[in-house]
Design brief:
Elements (H helix, E strand, L loop, with lengths): L3 E9 L3 E6 L2 E6 L2 H5 L6 E10 L4 E6 L2 H10 L7 H10 L2 H10 L2 H4 L7 H11 L24 H11 L4 H14 L5 H15 L1
Parallel strand pairs: 3-5
Antiparallel strand pairs: 1-2, 1-4, 2-3, 4-5
GO molecular function: ATP binding; four-way junction DNA binding; four-way junction helicase activity
Subcellular location: Cytoplasm
Main location: cytoplasm
């Protein structure tokens, strides 16, 4: 298991970053908030988890061990794979997720793309007794990072669809953010659209 990676950030995309480790560039998939805390050229250290499938090896990165543990825990629920687990921690912060599971708050859990009432009930049933109490100390803020790119609207919509949202609501959310803040960079646009979609579910 690749427990963590540390090295200079070579590239930052909307759903992944490339971190150089020992002369090798590793593509690490992560949430928008984790990616927003990285800067191209700076050294990064990410907690990681390697998902092995017959056809692929995919490395997922997290700002801290807490996020990685939640990512792993979510995948113990039937029907929850890496993509949906990543979407979950992208939409809900760790404390919010823990509290929702502990309280059986289906309204919060159904904000997650691809999670309906039955899936939310299954999450509560299978995870309520496995989670720890929400941490009273909030995590530190993240810094903005990636620079604007051409065609960023389409790239952000594609990233949202990759997280499990359907195309039309994703397009509407991105267009609404662009109308309010036309100078938003891709990372900021993605975070704001995610926030908007989470509230609307």
């Amino acid at each position: 298991m690749i427990h963590s990676v540390r090295g200079p950030v070579l590239e930052i995309g909307l759903d992944h970053a490339v971190v150089e480790v020992g002369g090798v560039g590793l593509a690490v998939y992560a949430t928008p908030n984790t990616l927003a805390g990285l800067r191209r050229g700076d050294e990064a250290r990410l907690a990681t988890l390697l998902i092995v499938r017959e056809e692929s090896l995919t490395l997922f990165g997290f700002a801290d061990v807490e996020e990685r543990e939640l990512f792993q825990l979510l995948q113990t629920v039937s029907g929850i794979g890496p993509r949906l687990a990543l979407a979950t921690i992208a939409v809900l912060e760790p404390d919010t997720l823990r509290r929702a599971l502990a309280d059986g708050d289906l309204a919060v859990l159904t904000r997650i793309p691809g999670v309906g009432r039955k899936s939310a009930e299954r999450l509560v049933l299978e995870l309520r007794d496995k989670i720890t109490a929400p941490s009273p100390v909030a995590a530190g803020g993240v810094t903005s990072a990636p620079t604007p790119v051409l065609g960023q609207r389409d790239q952000v919509v594609e990233a949202l669809v990759g997280l499990g949202f359907t195309a039309r609501p994703a397009e509407q959310a991105v267009d609404a953010v662009l109308a309010a803040t036309p100078d938003a960079d891709a990372a900021g646009l993605l975070r704001a659209a995610l926030s908007s979609l989470g509230r609307s579910r």
